[in-house]
Batch of 2 targets.
Target 1
Amino acid sequence: MKGVSKIIGWIGAVILMMFSSCVDDVDFDQANDIVLDPAIELSLVYFKFSAQDFAEAEGEPSYKDSTDADLFSQDFFEYNLKAAEFYIEHTNTINKPFFAEVLFFDANDIEIYSVDVSIPASTNGEPVIIPTLVYFPEDQIGILKNTSKITAEIALIDESPPPLDENSEGSIEFNSSAIFYMEFK
Amino acid sequence: MIRKKCILFFILLILYQVKAQNRQLLYNFREIPQSVMVNPGVEIHQKAYAGIPFMSGIYANAGSSGFTMHDLFSDDGVNFNVKVNRILYDLNDKDIIDVSEQIEILFGGYRSKKDRDNFYSFGVYQELDFYNYWPNDIARIAYEGNAGQLYRKYDLGDLNAQGEIITAVHFGVNRKVNKSLTVGVRGKIYNSMINITASRNSGTFVTVPGEDNVYRHMINADMEVHTSGYASLWDKNITGIRDFFKSIFWRGFFSGNLGLGMDLGFTYSPNDYWTYTGSLQDLGMMFHITDLESYTLRGAYALEGIEFLFGQATDDEFLNNYWDDLKDDLEEQIPLDTIKTVYTSFRPAKLNAAVIHNFGNLRYRKNYDCGCDVDDSGFENSVGLQLFAIHRPHRINAALTAFYYRRIFNFLRAKVTYTLDKYSYNNVGLGISTHFANINFYLLADNILTYGNLAKSNQASVQFGFNYIFEDKR
């Protein structure tokens, strides 16, 4: 029986040895340092007007529309949005220039940011493409997080005759997308 | 400090169980009574045995095919995020993290008095099994986002995981049909303590250039995650592992979620030189009928953004709930539902097969009397090849093992294995079975080359236990 306990002791020692040397030079606290920084790309607002849409109104007609936009004040963005880049693209095939404006409002309906774009007239229906990049770096991202309403406005600048009528051709298009740079710690 | 790390390592081992339950060392190791658990048709030489309760079979196994603890947590001064990045781009959807643990609560066996060709074995064990195929595309989108990935199809079907804790009551019959053939069968009743199954998922997410806007995002999803024994945990105040096990302890006896399973096996020895064995384990199903909660995400959606509709040419402020409407629409088209639904899950079925060549001294030390009932018929050496395969939903993992077995002394038998599988090409295992008086102690460990630093190992398993062997005075 003495031999038995000796052998069992020996085996126990081997097991202990194996397990006590099990992990060298490992630091599990590093897991706290992890940072995830995905970039999410999303299509945003779009609209399109034909030349006739502007023919119906007198003077210098404009169109304006707004959407609620509490997106950025929700926790997902509020805590983790680090920077954002908006891409706006106007495509004009009407032989008149336009003026476009995108406005950001906070919860008190106070304008906190605006993007102005001048779009030259098209000649012979050739598309005029005006890309606009709006970047919100880390120190300005608060503007976006305070936004609760976004308004888009497009106005015809009728500099010279003839005015647009129901036979006028072409369209003005608004496309937009954004890349949201996130940071999860 | 080292000890603390070891404890943490083993907790991780148990929590993030890794690899595939290959019992290459135990298989055909006939001095170890538990070999009947991997092949109910093994040749049994004992008259009777009884495991020391809770100490007869303790098994733990963890593996990760794509990376090691060392790759990730090595204290080498490299920024952790750099290491994560390195590993992430190395992994793919075929990589698996697999952890299992098994403790025999009771185990025993005896030879029939009426018919000495029959041997009965029985017992109760508890088992934890978790596997998770690396959800490659889902992880990529979480890690780097979808920016700049036009046309890339993210496969939502990459979510393929199952975790369960069960107890099993089993009874097996082993019969020596004739001099060369032994067959066996074992019936099992499983009792599920907790089960989470996410194995039938499909869907894609892709971004393409839009028709009306810059991009069009398209998602279609047919995803479900089933759970049983999970919902009721919410009502309990669980703050740690201990609370968790306390909460599920009584379910080990009767949870209401039961399953049935079967093992089959044979040993065929046409002559003294050659032996062929094969077994199928855990051909079984679990029926989940109580304490259920399932989550489903089904539907399809294509999004180009929000179209401003403009009421008319006006200076008035038009405020529309486009954004809220979009959210509502999305939730309606791809609803995330929580439902109670009865479901079935499969146990991971396992296959073992071996070709064995026996050689060396015949009837080795037959005359030596050690009084410990160690079988001494046959040759003192064996070499052979073993095949192991385990079935997981959608996939089968396989391993090939070459082994050498030797009866060193009457009180010491050993087996060395070399195993090739997707985890590693240098898996050397060592198993010993000792016999002193009537006590059998065995210790089986694979990947022993990495024991110097387990953290560098992709996979490691260890099994040990104590049995009491009844002398056969035949």
Target 2
Amino acid sequence: MSARAPLSPNPSPPGGEGSALDAASPPPAGGRDRERGSTATTPPLLEVRGLTKHFPIRAGAIVEREVARVRAVDDVSFTVARGETLGLVGESGCGKSTTGRLVLRLIEPTAGTILFDGEDVTGLEGAALRRLRRSMQIVFQDPYGALNPRMTVEEIVVEPLVVQGGTTRADMGREARRLMDLVGLPAAHVTRHPHEFSGGQRQRIGIARAIACRPRFVVCDEAVSALDVSVQAQIVNLLQDLQKELGLSYLFIAHDLAVVRHISDRVAVMYLGNLVEVADKRTLYTAPRHPYPQALLAAVPVAHPRLRRTRPRLTGEVPSPLDPPPGCRFHRRCSLAEDVCRTEVPALRDLAPGHAVACHFAERTGGPPPAAA
Amino acid sequence: MTPPLLSAPLLSAPLLSVRDLTVTFRAEGRTQAAVDRVGFDVAAGEVLGIVGESGSGKSVTALAVMGLLPANGRVASGEILFEGTDLLRLPARKMRDLRGRRIGMIFQEPMTSLNPVFTIGDQIVETIVHHERLGRRAARERAVDMLARVGIPSARRRLDDYPHQMSGGMRQRVMIAMALACSPRLLLADEPTTALDVTIQAQLLDLLNDLRREFGMAVVVITHNMGVIAEFADRVAVFYAGRVAEEAPVEPLFDRPAHPYTRGLLASTPRLDADAERLVTIPGAMPNIAAPPPGCRFAPRCGVKVEACEADRPPLVAVGDGHRAACIRAGEAAA
């Protein structure tokens, strides 16, 4: 279907600072049926179309059968450009982590297509999938659970190279030291074990492991969420430095809206398995058009006591993905909901170039930005 | 400028006064101080925010106030005066009686604070019956009222639910209902919204704010989140490595932070309402309390330290009205 890009060594320039992004990359996928304009010369590094994951719930005493499905991710489409950071935000259970794992082929999608560097990787298996993994890596949230306590740091960070093969023992030692240096840890500490490091240092080790194979795309799944503020800032800066140095693209999954604003070029908001809004970060944070991101931003505690005020609060809770509401999944909590919202699923459509919203009434949801600019 | 609540301590004795509190733990055969001569006051009706990172001693302080330190921890020195009575000298039976009736508490993870094998109704009724001369039927009515008050829909029906049948936000509401069932004078809330999604956190902060006004109770809210402080606290104590680094009314703390650690903490927090090129960081990490640095415990990470900082513990010095910082350079830096 799509032209296969030549396998050249990473030709992408390091990520520009924000402004260049929309120019450098095609506009974010608006809907899954939209074809990108023929003017785009290089495909985005990552493109997913109609990505869907339903987890079956089985029951039955003798013969198990499917009794329900958790619709964790439903018809999600987006792109990540070279050198870009796409933030993916949403509350617990919205499907953001599942999306990250689907993109990496750690779990199999129920439907949808994943294009990496123009190549359809949805059905890759065996050696081809292992080759893909060289280019796509992940940093996990929990720096304690993600590192094997019985391995030395050297063994941990070069393990991806061992799996991929083709690196000599001597080279591995050198690589380990190079990686330690890249993530700001003393190279001499490669012989230590994870428990000898603090939480922030462990996260640096997890990052070193993720970049060991010189990937081009890294999923950061709540990578700084478990860290204290002062350490979190160090790791955020490290991720940004590495992005520039190595030309990485990030899918930055997090629930902390302030961190996402800081690190992302564009931001996508998920609700109950759907993307509800995608925009460059300035637009998303100052002029969101979907009522859910508007409410989400209004709910974040203010940054200064003088900004305290009573704000409209989102009432109720996120419905179960086992039985999502018909029509717009947000309609039961939405103050603007009308009949059409209860019956028709709103498509994610472009409101402006690079700004896509899944709301029947996106044209009239404008208003004062919820966060003081 | 000064909110009326702040003058209350001058007029009357504080509701809670923690003085020179030191809490030690035995670990690996050594004794180490997790809390090192910490002091603060809470006036009636006031919200004191205690903010700090992991290992700052903020939660240990709360546990000490409640008399709920784990077996390997003990209060080595100090006083905890509640309504004039030193809680540390109170017999266990009296302390049990005070806890839940005069002092309520809520924790970060409601699932571990609620008993999974009893219905939430049983647990709230148990609390009420234990503390007040009330029959089970009347206590049950009170429980229904409280659940409705904290925003649990169909409260009467939910009374017979078990904790696992509720969402995290609903469980935290149950915890609040239980903590407030006997109209305590003081509520200790340790990271009450940390495990919750931001929209649910906002609902609960609003609820706590309404309830504390309605019940006229004081709240000590312990958090790592400067946003929760900005949203909710009247006065703030910043903890670092087992000590109070700074205390101030909430606005001056954000406007004129006097301690380099507070300044670093505020600067390294990403903003929702502004873009920064790069985050300011505090280099290094929290010191190990088993071997704390001499003098000021923040000195190894401090950008403005001088030789004297590593000699002696810096005293809390006044830098403004009700505003004190444990930094020998606070006077010059705050200008």
